[in-house]
Amino acid sequence: MGRSLYGTKRSDRAPILLAGWLPYKFRPRPRYRFGDSLTVAPTQTLSDKDFQRMRDAAIRMMRSIGTFAGGCNVQFAFNPKTGRMIAIEINPRVSRSSALASKATGYPIAKVASKLAIGYTLDELPNDVTGTTSACFEPSIDYVVTKVPRFNFDKFEGADEVLTTQMKAVGEVMAIGRTFTESLQKAWQSMEIGRAGLGADREEPSRNIIRMRLQKPYWDSTLQIRSALKMGASVEEIADITKVDKWFLYQIQYLVQLEKEIGQHHLQTLPPSLLRRAKQHGFSDVQLAYLLQGAVAEEDVRRHRKAQNISPVFQLVDTCAGEFPAQTPYFYSTYADENESEVSEREKVVIIGSGPNRIGQGIEFDYSCVHAVLAAKESGYEAIMINCNPETVSTDFDIADKLYFEPVFFERVMDVIEHEKPIGVIVQMGGQTALRISRQLHEVGVQILGTSYQNMDLAEDRGQFSRLLKQLEIPYPPFGVALSPGEAAAVSETIGYPILVRPSYVLGGQGMRIAINKEEVREYAQRIFDIFPDNQLLLDLFLEGGVEIDVDALSDGKDVHICGIMQQIEPAGVHSGDSTAVLPPFSLKPHVIETITSYTRSIARAMNVIGLVNIQMVVKKDDVYVIEANPRASRTVPFVAKATGVPISNYATRLMLGEKLTTFQDAGLLVSKLEGFAIKEPVFSWDKFPEVSKELGPEMKSTGEAIVFIDELSDDHFQKPYEMRNL
């Protein structure tokens, strides 16, 4: 098994080792990437003697590479049976996993490393969390952190899901709990793959699937281990197959035993002691509702446990295990006795984050969340951030007034809201993650700031939205809605071909396909319903030969400001996230741009958009068709903001908090500073998935993007993608 130690060093001073890490791997060989490993801190199976050996070796290694000032990462391989330890590598720099170590311990590695590099010594730097100790003190934690990587194999048909030395994860989540089991369950609640914890929320896979996926290291091996234990496999058998330390297997076995105990009861007969124990080990209300006998809903469990006075408390991440007073408001929830999160008298705003990075929803949404936090603070509110992604700026402890490192999961979000009692919640900035729980928040009476839930839902409901467009006399492609593969096939015959088949309430074109006949529609529809069983299917006539347009706009419900109109270089049918986009448009006629502007304003006013709206259109033979509207921040917001120099996320937040667009217009703050053209170029990771087709289509596959500024369209950054647009 692998271990990593993180340190900071100043000259010849002894380095500080921040944490010992145990990548929880499923087979020692073939070795696979740290970034693809489930990781736990502090180490759970390493003796103090072995930890000190590793610590001493790391210090010697850091000293041996000469004088330097900054961060350092040392990785070891360790055989728990023989005690043999091998140094794998040393990186005298801040590594990708340094962010994870910082979020897990509260120790700001990059900040300290930067100050060391410009001449400070460790004893001269204060600990920002406690405010009373220096950076010389090694952090100590009295909780357990679990990191689970996030994969997107569903985006790459035919990709090899077996983990190897080539990193395949596209993001990660981190969870904090008082026990390993609690943090593990919270981590799976954070993953945004439809799980309410480590299993106990749907039917078990077949024995053949479990057996196959335990033979090699798959991304979901932890889930398969739990299923195998539930079906009667022994800890010894699984340890022999997977080479996972038995300590972890016994922890998962305990969760399985708790499931059996819970399943013997109805909600009203569930002993309060068992309910509390289940919550202490991370079981969500959704899991409990699934396990209990009889028809039980999540809200029934929540109501019952609150009546039993079983609610979480919030405790500090303080770097010192409570030995010194902490000043930084960085919290996690747990079921314990002492609540360390004091509620102020100030008016509060909660910003819901975007969860783990994945294709279709990446760091672009965290950009919007961070600017929303800063805008709320500037407006005099106490800004409270909820997120679970250690890779983001929004989860830095000094960004928001209060940070709750929690899953973006309805139960966990409601726990924070009930504790803090904000004036409202901002869901526009967190992508589809935040929007998914907005319905539940609305149903329990939580105030959604900005565009109302009803109008956000209208945009997702193809029938309602198309009726709105018809009222506004705005053209749109013929469409249909289906609730089964058979219905989809029948509807497609009335619309015509080619036809775009897609689920609703998704980002990044997930599951989207272009079909050319009835049989393909039925096949694609079945695949979508297998992945999204409770979803509705949207079918739109595909406009061949059209040019796709993206529009980002600000609105206060009355006035509308067009922030940017982007024209795709690739033809319609290629997802906008995978296309090279140009701002401003490079070939649209003035009257077409005027029509796009008019349609955007009409839609924003009709939907009473307060904040941001993104509208996608297709131009074919100078006719403009509206494809969809999203009354929220889009992935193009950072691109438009940086291209024009207008902080639109900040202004959108201030509109949600009651300011008017004329405030910014009258002060000349909405004038674009762009000269020439800005180009958004997608970045792909094809080398990670060599067996996957590189053909682009309606489902997004890019993992990042770059921005390029050019003066003329003769520039190669425009000419090359333009010449290749139809290849």
Lateral arrangement of strands in the main beta sheet: 5-4-1-2-3-6-7
Overall CATH architecture of the largest domain:
2-Layer Sandwich
Number of strands: 24
**Rg, Å, rounded:** 26 Å
Helix content: 25-40%
Largest sheet: 7 strands, antiparallel
CATH classification class of the largest domain? Alpha Beta
Mean pLDDT: 89
End-to-end distance, in Å? 46 Å
Question: Can you walk through the features of this model?
Answer:
- The protein has 727 residues and is of the alpha+beta class.
- The protein has four domains: 2-141, ATP-grasp fold, B domain (D-amino Acid Aminotransferase, Chain A, domain 1, 2-Layer Sandwich), CATH 3.30.470; 313-458, Rossmann fold; 479-504 and 514-541, Dna Ligase, domain 1 (2-Layer Sandwich); 547-723, ATP-grasp fold, B domain (D-amino Acid Aminotransferase, Chain A, domain 1, 2-Layer Sandwich), CATH 3.30.470.
- Helices cover 34% and strands 21% of the residues.
- It has 23 helices and 24 strands.
- The strands form four sheets. The chain has a seven-stranded antiparallel β-sheet with strand order 5-4-1-2-3-6-7, with helices on both faces.
- Residues 10-30 have low confidence and may be disordered.
